[in-house]
Amino acid sequence: MKIRAKAPLRISFAGGGTDVPPYPERNGGCVLNATIDSFAWGSLCPRQDGRIRLASADFNLLLDYTTQSEMRPDGQLDLVKAVINRFGAKDSAGFEIFLHSDAPPGSGLGSSSALIVALVGLIKEFQNIRMTPYDVAESAYRIERHDLAIQGGLQDQYAASFGGFNFMEFYGDRVVINPLRVNPDVLNELEHNLLLCYTGQTRRSDRIIEDQTQRLESGNAETVDALAQQKQLAVDMKSALMRHKLDDFGGLLHSAWEAKRHMSAKISNPLIEEMYAEARKNGALGGKITGAGGGGFILFYCQFENKLRVAEALTKMGAIPKEFAFEGLGLQTWRAQEIVTTVGIFDSAPAVYPRAV
N or C: lower Cβ tally within 10 Å for the chain? Predict the structure, then answer.
């Protein structure tokens, strides 16, 4: 019997940065985001020979351990090792884990956090641990931010765990997830009008977040004001969404990008600025980088009559448009009967799968 898991990636609309400590503890943060039909995928197969084998299709990597091995962070599948260590999963007869993500790390879609959520899902099922979506998200957050000391915020783990459209509130001692019951016509119209484009560049989000945090700690007025604007824009965009004011939503997306650019000088770059200007010239009402910045995906809101023209203009600049739909479910786990094949994925190094963008 194999255990499967998938956790959705997300797009963020406004509020990003207000979920990054120490801002939530001092001011309270809020974020508006939604999950999409791209996923982090995982599979776990129990063994009985004391071996632990880890494979990643994205990194074309296969690691082999025993249940007695020390799994120390060394730059190779550290996220996987950290989940195994936190849950004490080595105290078993062994297992195999196989992983794949629909977007690369640094894409701005929360793929690393979604992968940890999927891994937590696999291990909790393997060890028969009962966990709520809050428990899964909190565990994923602590693994990523504390055990591995990777700088970042809280929204990605909660988005992947809960799924759907959410207005998230972050405080020093708690996280509150407010699921939004968005009208189906509004969802369809958003999918019709939103354009997600890969810039062709990935980035190290922790360096951008480190700069943003240092500016906040030093009381930089530009950063402090931009974060306050992000918080208010998340509220305003939620209101526009629930009131079916989608052109207002698109305009607020532009305001969110204007505010985000002032949180850190590392968030934008000449390529992003050029692409954004070209999209606006061809009819986009607004847009923003979907993650910390510096590369990854840009999300644009266009009236549908202009969407193809915007996509064509950005494609000429080297961007790659990505079709997507909203995903209403968060982490999902299930069990599958093992199918006997002549050659298994662990009989040799894993094949290289093309990354979806």
Answer: N
Tens digits of residue pLDDT in 54-78: 999 999 999 999 999 999 999 999 9
For residue 16, is it within any domain?
A: yes
Inter-residue contact 252 to 236 (CB < 8 Å): yes
Phi, psi of 182 (to 5 degrees): -80, 130
pLDDT at 338: 61
Q: How far apart are CA 55 and CA 59, in angstroms?
A: 9
Q: Which of 58, 102, 156, 236 is catalytic?
A: 156
Query: How far apart are alpha carbons 254 and 248 in whole angstroms?
Result: 10
Active site residue 156: yes
Residue 346, domain member (yes or no): no
The model's pLDDT over 293-334, given as tens digits with 9 standing for 90+, comes to 777 899 999 999 999 999 999 999 999 999 899 999 999 999
Cα–Cα distance measured from residue 105 to residue 109, given in angstroms and rounded to the nearest whole number: 8
> 80 with 119: CB under 8 angstroms?
yes
Q: Which range marks the domain in which residue 33 is found?
A: 2-336
The enclosing domain of 302 has a CATH number of: 3.30.230.120
Residue 352 is assigned to a structural domain of this protein? no
Residue 148 identity: L
In a domain, 134, yes or no: yes
C-alpha span between 298 and 310 (Å, rounded): 12
Q: How far apart are CA 314 and CA 234, in angstroms?
A: 27
Other CB atoms closer than 10 Å to residue 233's CB: what's the count? 24
